[in-house]
Write a structure and sequence with these properties.
104 residues; mainly alpha; 4 helices; 0% strand; 59% helix; globular
Length: 104
């Protein structure tokens, strides 16, 4: 978390599983709104540092935060990341991305 927040995390090592884990960690500490704020800022910066700012998607980030929050809410408080993945292995499939909410 600290390397993500202070901008020292190497973009090449931050794959889908790491995105899901960071989101889960943030949800446990900051709730959904705080997680969205931190991820939107941090992922935008990470994509820019990687030279791929067009890869960042705010609607998709919000949709993933919501999906992971919903999955975590079905488990007992204090569950582990491994327990989350055991119950919801589809969270590790980046191709099974949630549909971003439509804005009107």
């Amino acid at each position: 978390m600290s390397r993500f927040e202070n901008g020292t995390l190497a973009p090449a090592g931050f794959r889908h599983r790491e995105h899901v884990r960071l989101t889960w960690l943030y949800l446990g500490r900051y709730g959904q709104a705080g997680t969205e704020r931190r991820l939107l800022s941090g992922l935008r910066e990470l994509a820019a540092r990687a030279g791929k700012p067009d890869r960042f998607s705010e609607p998709l980030t919000r949709a993933w935060v919501s999906r992971i929050a919903e999955a975590a809410a079905t488990l007992v408080p204090g569950h582990s990341f491994d327990e989350l993945l055991t119950q919801r292995p589809q969270l590790l499939d980046p191709l099974d991305a949630p549909a971003p909410a439509q804005t009107i």
